[in-house]
Amino acid sequence: MPQTPFKNHSLPGRIEVGDFDEGGEGVGYHDLTPETGNDYRPGTAIDLKPRPGGQWATVDTQAGEWTAYTVRVPFGGVYRCEVLVSNDRSPGAFRVQVDGVDAVPIMPAPNTGSRDVYVWVGVPGIRLRSGAHVVKLLTERESISVEAMRFLAEVFDPAPPAGEVVTTLSSGLYRVP
User: Which DSSP category does 19 fall into?
Assistant: First the structure.
């Protein structure tokens, strides 16, 4: 089955972790415990649990599991990427890729002392070009829970002057110093 968006995501904005792409195992997600599942996305193996406020969070993730999200970036620029994580057992860790390139390097998920306490963890300085991209959230060390990701605009690219030729690189992502 091809990878298609479950929901339309536009950046800057928030991505709920349960709204990963359609396509099934190995396309929209990868889960190492397929016998589990959830009520939000029946037929998928991702371990989702309801959260207060109507959101869903991945729980009991294992190293090597991931979810993918097709996003639209109307305005290129520099963004901050943050992940809303909970970790009651150290040392959990995650990373975020955009179009197959690490945008957020392996980040520790701080021990929040409870599965019900979440904190935002992330990095600034992620350069995204306008257009469609695939964002992938990867678990590097188990036992973290994730509710959402968000991309916050730091600086938008200026519009090129009329008549200027703009060359787009094949990768939609690069880091700025």
Answer: G
